[in-house]
From TrEMBL:
Belongs to the SecB family. GO terms for biological process: protein tetramerization; protein transport. SUPFAM superfamilies: SecB-like. The lineage of its organism: Bacteria, Pseudomonadati, Bacteroidota, Sphingobacteriia, Sphingobacteriales. InterPro entries: SecB, SecB-like_sf. This is Preprotein translocase subunit SecB. One of its GO terms (molecular function) is unfolded protein binding. Pfam families: SecB. It comes from Pedobacter polaris. Keywords: Protein transport, Translocation, Transport.
Amino acid sequence: MTKIAELHGSPFALNQFHIDEFSIKRNPVKPGKPIFTFNPSGLIDYDTSGYVLTIDFEVKDANDAFTIKCNCIGYFKFKVEEGKSADLKSFFYLNAPAIIFPYIRSYIASVTALSGLEAVNLPLINFPKSIAENLMQNTKTREPNNSDVTTSQA
C-alpha cells in the first residue's frame, strides 16, 4: 500500500485506502436508479494517532441490472492538540466517509466499465447526518496506553 498523504498543517489526513472485498452481479438490462446501502464502522486508536474507517457498501438498481458489494478500508492519521480532541469528532464521523467515497465511486466506475456492460457511475452525494450518527455508534476507541477497546460515545 502507498501512503496517500502526510500530516503537515492538517489535523486529519487519509494515509492509505484499499478495497478488501468486491463483487458484482450484472444483468444485461438498462440500469435504473441506484439504491445505496452504506454501513460504516471505525476504530480510533490514540496510541498510534490512527483512525481506521471500514465501509460495507452495496448499490443496486431498481431494474435489477446490477448488484455491487464492496468492503473498503481507509487508514487516517490525526493530530490531537491539547484540549481539542472533541474537534476531531467531525473529522471521524463526517469528513472521513466523504473523503473515502470518491475512491469507492471511481473504483466501481472503473470495474464496471471493464465488465463489458454499461459503466455504473454513482452520483456525488452529500452524506446525511444519519450516516455520521450510525458511524458514531459503530466506532470503537482505544485510549492511550490501554489495550482495551471501548465503544465510542458521543
